[in-house]
User: What shape does this take?
Amino acid sequence: MIALLRRDLVLAVRAGGGFGLGLAFFLILCVLVPFGVGPEPALLGRIAPGVLWVGALLACLLSLDRIFQLDFEDGTLDLLATSPLPLEAVASVKAFAHWLTTGLPLVLAAAPLGLLLNLPGAAMPWLVAGLALGTPALSVIGTFGAALTVGLKRGGLLISLLVLPLYMPTLLFGAEAARRGAEGLSPTTPLLLMAGLTAGCIAVMPFATAAALRMNLR
Amino acid sequence: MIALLRRDLVLAVRAGGGFGLGLAFFLILCVLVPFGVGPEPALLGRIAPGVLWVGALLACLLSLDRIFQLDFEDGTLDLLATSPLPLEAVASVKAFAHWLTTGLPLVLAAAPLGLLLNLPGAAMPWLVAGLALGTPALSVIGTFGAALTVGLKRGGLLISLLVLPLYMPTLLFGAEAARRGAEGLSPTTPLLLMAGLTAGCIAVMPFATAAALRMNLR
Amino acid sequence: MMPDLGKYADAVLSSYAVSLLLLFGIIGLSLWRNKRVKQQLAEAEMQLSNKN
Amino acid sequence: MDYAATNLACRRGDRTVLAGLSFSVAAGKALILRGANGSGKTTLLRCLAGLTPPVAGSLSFAADDVAYAAHDNGLKAQLRVAETIEFWASIYGATDTAPAVDAFTLSPLMTRHVAALSAGQKRRLSLSRLLLTGRPLWALDEPTVSLDSATVTKFADAVRAHLAQGRAAIIATHIDLGLDAADVLDVSGFKPSVADAQDPFLDGAFT
Amino acid sequence: MDYAATNLACRRGDRTVLAGLSFSVAAGKALILRGANGSGKTTLLRCLAGLTPPVAGSLSFAADDVAYAAHDNGLKAQLRVAETIEFWASIYGATDTAPAVDAFTLSPLMTRHVAALSAGQKRRLSLSRLLLTGRPLWALDEPTVSLDSATVTKFADAVRAHLAQGRAAIIATHIDLGLDAADVLDVSGFKPSVADAQDPFLDGAFT
Amino acid sequence: MSIWRYANPTQFMATTGWMLPLFGVSAAAFVATGLIWGFFFTPDDFRQGSTVKIIYLHVPSALMAINAWLMMLVASLIWLVRRHHVSALAAKAAAPVGLVMTVIALLTGAIWGQPMWGTYWAWDPRLTSFLILFLFYLGYIALWQAIETQDTAADLTSILCLVGSVFALLSRYAVNFWNQGLHQGTSVPVATGGRTVSDVFFIPLAISMIGFGLLFVALVLLRTRTEIRARRLQALLAQSTAVE
Ligand code: HEM
Ligand SMILES: Nc1ncnc2c1ncn2[C@@H]1O[C@H](COP(=O)(O)OP(=O)(O)OP(=O)(O)O)[C@@H](O)[C@H]1O
Ligand SMILES: Nc1ncnc2c1ncn2[C@@H]1O[C@H](COP(=O)(O)OP(=O)(O)OP(=O)(O)O)[C@@H](O)[C@H]1O
Ligand SMILES: [Mg+2]
Ligand SMILES: [Mg+2]
Assistant: This one.
């Protein structure tokens, strides 16, 4: 399993992808938004938590289709499925690698980018906490979506369609926590709910992912 | 050339992609944003033009990497490059097919989705006009980005990084036109500038795209 | 016969129009596809029984 | 130990491609699968490898006994040759990669990226994985594709060495590998009838 | 008309793989390229097809004369067989697809999706494109990969028919196609020296 | 004889052959009665004016939009557990009907919103969760369309339906938490029996709801029959090329 994780990370870095790019995308989005909506600081501050959350979601989505697609096309997935590694483990490792290359950089970059968007200081810690708790769920759910569409070429947008409604609860809790933080209310309830959601996803989704993979390879 | 266009469209539709999905993505984004920033109608109305433009951009970006990547991986691009079709024509056709499957549906869907985001009625026609004039440029520029990264697996995020700065002028003019429309000012200047930009891109970019392709195939 | 809908006539009529259109749309589509598939299947069965 | 299949039927996509197929491969023996293009060799091998469950019939061995090599190489262009070998070695818990490297003369290529290999070199790298699996039954789908004749001989040697350890191999191929301890099975003879398809939509009749 | 190359040097990636290679193929003749894996057959063919410009030397024909068939099939899984053939026919302006379909017995497969073809069937479809190009020089990279022996014979017939029209073919292959009008060129003999690499960073000396 | 014998395609075709017209005719009768009664023969509401007439479309379609998804969930479970092909095809057949119901509920709601709340759209929890349901339908249908191999498509869409149901529930809950809405609560709580709508409106509404339910059943039966035939057609063609 560690070998698979190491391989996935090496591939991510070598292919001009890896940590840098998820981050770069996030940065670019944060630059685009002020251009799109205009530069007033008060307005930007209000929408900042939402924008950062939507950005995290999209950065995840953008990279989802590659989780299994490349391995499927060059035949590696067949070989992994016949290897001693259970497919559930493959699913978990893939999700974890995706989080390391996409989710983690976003969590680390959220604070400085929040500054760029005038995010109120009170909201900052809660936004970061929310992202830290929520992005693992995004990766795990996204891996499931990728497994559903693995046989299909150009699945990119189909994944988005399948996965985005599944992202809704995470997004709602996360944005709510950041907003409550900004307004000085206690954001623990949404954060707790989100932690529960993430824990549940991590525990259960790999089984659904492995089942979907098995069906697609058949 | 028409054969290539037809083939690309057939592939887009068959692969569960096609017209519907660019649209679905756009719709999903418009649903996400209120979740992220909260449901107040006034706030949503203010940021609506920006959000729709950023959404159009992202819908384009999400689908860019597939323009040449699949053809490259299965060897079709080599065959097309040795065919009687000049690569410039291939580049133009690919860009046009991309616009038909991504840009056009966005133009058509912008009005109803604007409603969802409380877009002021006065801004609506200008937003749509801006999208109609601007999305062809997005496709043409994106095709160039796709040609640059065609050799690289997992080019998805790298393309975004390369292309987004090139999208900036289009975005600026488009959002400005919609905002002026909303405030009752005349949006003709930004629209004219954008039309010029688009015309220039359509005329010149296919040559750059073809050059990039040739280098990548070498 | 036509009830007086007052100032909301637009809303009521358009919602009825849209809904009926959609309902008839899905009904028509289902019937049409049913007929087509039935015909195709009959043709295929004919061909196969001729072959054997 | 014998590796046997009894009355097997296999499906590919929506289509039942083979039915009523039985065979038995004794330890130390190889089974060569023959058959025209599209006759179902790949379908059978995928079924043996546990990727598609059989529609009917049974296998006397588990999917864990099978080392499968497909038409596709399953290589990553961005990895180096050495990294690729190490990766599969650690997946299969193999400690010694030297036999795999030697059997396919990979040592001059170890530091190259897979992207910079020729078609035959890629194939050699892909086949070297077999020696890392340590599994007793090799199920190989046209393994010699794009290998030059010297390498084909080396490959046949590797198969012979494998068989000599009391193991077995099932190989789909269109060429002659020169294995003496090999039975031949022509899969063309196992075309299914409609009844074999095991499809509830083909039972009974309705219009 | 002769198809000739003079003193050719070809590059693959950063590496100059072949140098000093010359040949001439007369109309009606075929040239078989031989050489161990990695000796540069693919590199040479890509150069002839105009995909990589030669590092040195010259060709007596244009890239437009060459119909190239690579290791990869270049097929789209989502298209049907008939659609694929029509697509290439209209790209090359061919009006009659019947010869291509017949030469590789594709007619029973016409309505299938490419995804549902076996490896050999895909190869047959991919090769049928050659007959649509109408180009005089075929440059083929291991065309018989995964073809069964009956189809290999059919393919050799197609090549013979092509040559009989006064055209020519250059074919890299590891097997014997049984073409009588064929010269053989072993590319292994054209390994470049450092001077052949034509790389400005290898001229002169600095440390 | 267990109920599962209807899961055999031949049996299903035979049984539904005579059931379908029955459902079709009664659906037409109930829908027509409910809507005509509601549109022509009910008074205006004292607050909502004539817009109250929209209720005869809005509520039944909203109800059926949810029920259709529930039916798909059950059918998917049956497919996953017992592998009855008809059940998978029934789920496939129901999805577009559910989608249309969802669209009708959304559109009539939006049109109703303009006079009542002064806006076509508000991010009210109930409205929002309907929009999410709409997305689930779209995704489910798109996945069916995208996969060639029928059994695989059935498997994958079933899993999506299962996982999607859980997440739909979660987001319904999360949405409530996020925004208190404008939309009125349930006024026909079947469980408690009490209701806030007066009989004048309620009787035609009930008839219309029954009608929409029957219409749903009729459409699903018809479409399932089509899917079964299409499936047999495909199997025949595939097998004949394999056997030849
Ligand atoms: C696009 C907007 C709307 C959507 C998606 C929507 C959705 C729904 C849903 C899901 C139900 C639930 C049915 C049930 O629980 O039994 C419902 C019921 C109802 N809606 Fe809407 N609605 C929308 C707009 C409106 C508007 C604008 C009004 C009028 C002011 C309205 C009035 C009602 C009424 C009276 C009911 C019946 C409640 C009951 O008796 O249970 N809705 N709607
Ligand atoms: N994904 C698929 N869906 C449906 N049918 C398929 C699929 N893949 C292959 N087939 C069909 O199944 C049959 C058996 O294919 P298979 O790949 O097993 O043949 P094969 O013996 O391996 O041929 P080859 O020598 O060409 O590799 C063929 O008729 C083929 O067209
Ligand atoms: N993209 C590349 N970059 C750098 N070197 C490469 C690249 N592709 C191949 N090579 C190297 O160039 C040499 C020639 O490769 P080529 O593919 O031409 O060989 P080939 O004769 O076609 O072999 P095969 O019979 O295996 O197909 C080999 O040593 C190979 O390792
Ligand atoms: Mg095969
Ligand atoms: Mg080669």
In short: Residues D 115-121, 146, 148; E 12-13, 15, 17, 35, 37-43 surround adenosine-5'-triphosphate (ligand 3) (CB under 6 Å). Residues 2-217 of chain A form one domain. Residues 87-116 of chain A form the longest helix (30 residues).
